[in-house]
Structure formats: structure tokens, C-alpha cells
Amino acid sequence: VSTAIIPSAAELAAALASEVTESSIRSLDEIPTPALLLDVNAAAANVRLMAERADAAGVQLRPHAKCHRSAALARVQVAAGAVGQTCASVAEVEALALALGPVTEFSLLLATPTAGDVTARRIWRAAEGLPVIVAIDHIDRVSELVAACPDRGRRLGAVIDVDVVDTRTGVTSVVSALGIADEIANTDSIELLGVQGYAGALQHVPGRSTRRDATTRATDRLREVVEALRSAGHDVTIVTGGGTGTSGIDLQIGLLTELQPGSYLFMDRSYRDALGEDPEGQFIQSLTILSSVISSNQTSHVTIDAGLKSMATDSGPAEVLGHPGATYAFAGDEMGFVRDASLRRGDRVRLIPPHCDPTVDRYGMFWAVRGDEVLGTIPVTVRARA
Ligand SMILES: Cc1ncc(COP(=O)(O)O)c(C=O)c1O
Predict the structure, then answer these.
(1) pLDDT range class, residue 154, cuts 50, 70, 90
(2) Three-state secondary-structure class, residue 140
(3) Cα of 260 to ligand 1 centre, how many Å?
(4) How far apart are the CA of 69 and the centre of ligand 1, in A?
């Protein structure tokens, strides 16, 4: 049952278009390459579809900002009902707090556990601009954050990060979770809001039933911690996790109170390959790389100006749009090969990036387009690697 009025895709596209800085460049042929293009209609449709699905399941959305690193895209997601953004790094929290704050209506979740005094001080400083929630997976992080708290009366939210797939981060036992919760309960400056369980290793598992079975097992581990915390008298208001690949399954299982998907906004090639026709794959590919053919002296291939510096190549090759059968191959930092008999020096091609997050990370801005129409630019807000 829908509880919210979600703006239409057209309204969200208009909101995104209103974020654009106009450029004197009005045609795809004039954009300096390599360039990152974002189709505003496709992105808006994706924002709307995920918002509708979450709303229908009674689950809140906290899209992952590490995917877009953009205040403009965060604002559009919030306009569609998101309760805030998920961040992967302190730098993302800092940049988005500056760009989006001061506000109290939505919050930033730092989903990656952090260590040390320097990050603790930076987190407190960022939290001056808007509410910040941190993921904690070690009891010592509580005292580190308390020691760095600049003044009495200020509070950070916290969720206990639970390792649900034996991988990167998170507590590995109920006992550890209870220990952290008790430690937080003894502080004035940190408020325990709930738990996080993110099954990163399951997001790209092909085959919906395989992905569903594995997600069900991972969720059972998170549920065990939720129940233990509640039995011990701790409030668990937020149960956060999930990504694009498991989104529909997470919504069906129903333990999560908020979902953290990122890539649905762009739907890169590796996600499309893994998800195919599954409901989680039904988002439109909105992100492309515009590249120029710079040399066509070989018979077997042409060389384009998009290589490692234009896209992350950890997830296989890019897809060449509009040239069925053409293949892309990595050819160095600045170049790639495209095998397609029809291409000549000076031609332009559009590529679907294999992996969106670390591709966006390579650019200072998106060129906002609507089909072939160029609207202008949208900055990538989080640029500092501090
Ligand atoms: C903590 C966390 N939540 C959610 C996501 C979901 O991202 P995506 O939807 O792009 O898979 C990620 C991605 O790595 C993540 O690290």
C-alpha cells in the first residue's frame, strides 16, 4: 500500500534538468572526449521505479552515494522520498554534508566502519551540517568516537555492522553486537539506531532463485542479531542493507527497514549481464562514455580515446552502443580497441561502462543529455580523495 506521493518520472527528470549548468556546447559532436554522459530521463525513470518498489513494500530508501558522488542526484533521490544517502567514505560524508546541509530532514549513513582519531574528528565535524549515522563493527570504535566528540549534547547515530556473508566488515557474532550495543548505551554522545547487514558478495550472483536463497540465509543472520538486541532491551529502529542486485528479494523478505542500492541509477554492463530479465535488472542504462576514434590504420580494429583512465576495467569490457557485434578491448591508460569494420578516424562511439561506481569516480562532471540532446553539465561533487 502506497503511503507517499512519489513525483512522476517526468517531474524527477525536470528536477534533474534544473540542476544542470548550461553550456555553450549543444551537440554530442562538440563534447570533448572522453566524456561521461547521463541521460536524465533514464536516470529519473530509475529513481522513480526503485522509489515505487520500496514504497509499495513499506521500506525506506537510502540510495548509495558512492555510485553517483553527486549532490544533484542525491537531491533528486531525496525528492523521490529517500530518507538520505549512504556513503562509503568519510570524504563522501564531508562533501555531501557541505553540499546538502544544513538540513535535518534527511541523514547520511557512513556504511563503512572506520578506525582512528582522525576519521572520528572528521565525522563529528561533518555532522555539524546534517544528521550522520555511522556503522560500527568494533567495540573500541565507540570510545574513539566518544573521545573525539567536540561538545556535550551533540549526538551521532550508530548502526552495528553485521557480517552476513563472511567477507569484508561487520561483527561476526551476536556476542560482539551485544557488547557494542551495551557500550553505546553507556554514552551520551552516540545513539544506537539499529543494525546494518550488507551482502555485497551476493549482489551479482546470476540466477534469481540462487540469489534469493543466499540472501535469505544472509538475512537470517541479520535477524538473529536484531532479535538478540531487542531481547536485551536495545532499540532497533533501523535495519539497513541491500543493493541493486538483491533489492527485489530484500523487499520481499521484509526484514530491512531501509534499502541502500546505488547502481540501479545507472545499471552498468556487469549488473545487466548478471541480472538479465530479473526484476532487479529492469532499470535503464542511463550512463555512457562518449569516445572518439583517434586512429583507424589497422584492418582488425580502430583505436578510441577511452582506456583505463576513462573507465574501471575490473568487471570485463565496455559494451559498444549501436554497433551490434563490435567489441571493446583495453589498450592502455588512454586508449581502447574497438573491432568494428564500419568505424573510421573521427567517428564517435558511446560505451556502456562495465562498472559504474569507479567509472564515475574518474570524472569531474556528467554531461546531462536527453537522448541525443545536450542539456549541460552536472558536477561530480565528491572529488577529494582525502
Ligand atoms: C554498504 C553498501 N550498501 C549498498 C551497496 C549497493 O550498491 P549497488 O546497488 O551499487 O550494488 C554497496 C555497494 O558496494 C555497499 O557497499
Answers:
(1) confident
(2) helix
(3) 6
(4) 13
Instruction: Please give the number of the atom of ligand 1 that sits closest to the Cα of 242.
Output: 4
The residue type of 282 is Q
List pLDDT tens digits, range 167-212. 899 999 999 999 999 999 999 999 999 999 999 999 999 999 999 9
Mean pLDDT (the chain, rounded):
96
Which residue, judged by its Cα, is nearest atom 11 of ligand 1?
A: 243
pTM (global) more than 0.90: yes
* Residues lining ligand 1, Cβ inside 6 A: 64, 67, 86, 88, 111, 198, 200, 203, 243-245, 260-263
Ligand 1: which of 50, 59, 62, 64 to mutate, judged by most atoms within 8 Å of the beta carbon? 64
pLDDT tens, residue by residue, 269-319 = 999 999 999 999 999 999 999 999 999 999 999 999 999 999 999 999 999
For 160, the 3-state DSSP assignment is strand
Tell me the CA distances in angstroms from 230 to 71, 102, 190, 195, 312, one per residue in order.
Answer: 36, 33, 18, 11, 42
Better-predicted residue by pLDDT, 272 or 384: 272
Residues 279, 75, 202, 258, CA torsion sign: negative
> Are the CB atoms for 155 and 191 separated by under 8 Å?
yes
If you average pLDDT over residues 355-374, what whole number do you get?
97
How far apart CA 338 and CA 222 sit, in angstroms, is: 45
Q: How far is the CA of 151 from the centre of ligand 1 (A)?
A: 33
Ligand 1 midpoint to CA 179 (Å): 26
pLDDT at 147 over 60: yes
The answer for residues whose C-beta is within 8 angstroms of residue 39's C-beta and 6 or more apart is 284, 286, 287, 288, 369, 370, 371
Task: Read off the amino acid at residue 255.
Answer: L
Average pLDDT over residues 136-152: 96
- 296: CA distance to ligand 1 center in Å? 39
Q: How far apart are CA 232 and CA 27, in angstroms?
A: 62
Alpha carbons 175 and 172: distance in angstroms, whole number: 9
Taking residues 376-385, what's their average pLDDT?
86
Residues in the chain: 386
Q: Whose CA is nearest to atom 6 of ligand 1?
A: 243
Cα–Cα distance, 73 to 316 (Å, whole number): 26
Closest residue (by CA) to atom 3 of ligand 1? 260
